[in-house]
Amino acid sequence: MSNKPPAVRLATALFTAVWVLGAVKLVRSLSLAPSAGGHGFTIFAFAATYSVMALLIVYLWQGASWARGGLFVLFLIAIAPGLVLVLPYATRIPLLAILTAGQAIAAIAGFYIVFREPTAGWFKRPNTTPLTRGPRR
């Protein structure tokens, strides 16, 4: 897959930006008072979610079509629920609101790129059906 389209590079950069914004959110969250689960849970949730995200970004870069769906599911589980907190955070913790909105915008732009043509065509598997032999003699 050496003929990687520039749009795939852009989408990978956008998903990497989502990851980096998440890391910045983690650092900012740790500077606040701990939630009910404590800082340990926050660190664990970040490590579990964002390590899978990093792995999916690498597979996306390599051309794995299923990584697109994996990233979308991870978006629905990890980032989309946080969007309801953007407005309440906007007045109390504006940096977290801006970072969450930035994550959502970058992810949606990345998904638009990888699920639309012509980029989506790059992820399709090449025809690898084995050659059939003639009848045995």
What does this structure look like?
By secondary structure, the protein is mainly alpha-helical. Helices cover 72% and strands 0% of the residues. It has 6 helices and no strands. The protein starts with 5 loop residues before the first helix and ends in a 15-residue tail after the last helix. The model has no long low-confidence stretch (mean pLDDT 86).
In short:
The chain has 6 helices and no strands. It has helices at residues 6-30, 38-62, 65-79, 86-92, 94-115, 119-122.
Summarize this structure as a short list of keywords or feature phrases.
single chain, 137 residues
Fraction in beta strands: under 5%
- Can you write the helix and strand succession as a string? HHHHHH
Termini separation (Å)? Answer: 39 Å
- Catalogue the unreliable spans: none
Report the total helices. Answer: 6
Radius of gyration over all CA atoms, rounded: 19 Å
